[in-house]
Amino acid sequence: MVERPYVLLSCGMSIDGYLDSAGDERLLLSNDADFDRVDAVRASCDAILVGAGTVRQDDPRLLVRSDERRRQRVAGGRRPTPLKATVTGRGDLDPQARFFTLGEVDKLVYCATGNLDGARRRLGRVATVIDCGDPIDLARVVDDLHGRGVERLMVEGGGRIHTQFLAAGLVDELQLVVAPFFVGDSRAPRFVGDGCFPWHADRRATLAEVRQIGDVALLRYAMSPRFDGR
User: Fold this and answer.
1) Do the beta carbons of residue 5 and residue 170 sit within 8 Å?
2) What is the per-residue pLDDT across 12-70, written as a single tens digit (0 to 9) for each?
3) Residue of 3, 102, 91, 114 lying closest to 48 (CA atoms)
């Protein structure tokens, strides 16, 4: 039996595989109905994890938005919104970012060993800073989350974190939303970068569901035998 959280990787991308444009303005890849679906997925999880680049660039809140879903979580003995986690090599995050300031939940920063002391000085008042090796070891991250009671982990990007989790074979489910347009700019961030992935032409992932949500398409892939179809 695998002793780690169920890992669900969630991503929206353009038809040509980009997460955003190359400009300063954030590119909206989805629609209101899908944003609500993502909110429901968040509410079903114990923790949400993003990379440090996403914290810096997007300044996400990473909270459950629906009042009813927050009430249901509280009625079930949980916090209104999942705990938040990020992974950083340098540890140079802004303690005033919404990741830290919003939500009455634990905030965890997994930092490379070499920059651990600096990260604790900078962020120790707003988050728990945890050593995750040097180089960063994502297996160590998910093991630590499991030890903190996280059974279901949602990974929301960006591309570097997607690449690292997928290449490490730590993903049980991939939820990929495809927007009906092209970005067409190689300077823009992609869904994943170069990597050696466990799934390839001779070992295909299993397509578990295809669903139209307004003008976007949701593709759900079973990436391990642990896929639960929820």
Assistant:
1) no
2) 999 999 999 998 888 999 999 999 999 999 999 999 999 999 999 999 999 999 999 99
3) 102
- 182 neighbors 17 (Cβ within 8 angstroms): no
Helix intervals (H) in the chain: 32-43, 52-58, 67-75, 98-101, 116-123, 138-147, 159-167
Q: Token digits for 222? A: 């079973």
CB-based contact 98:68 (threshold 8 Å) = no
Residues in the chain: 230
CA distance 87 to 138: 9
pLDDT tens per residue, range 11-22: 999 999 999 999
| Helix ranges, 44-195 (H) | 52-58, 67-75, 98-101, 116-123, 138-147, 159-167
| Cα dihedral sign, 222-176-157-162 | positive
Q: Residue 83 belongs to what H/E stretch?
A: strand 83-88
Q: At what angle do helices 32-43 and 67-75 cross, to 10 degrees?
A: 10
Backbone angles phi, psi at 88, to 5 degrees: -140, 140
Other Cβ atoms closer than 10 A to 48: 25
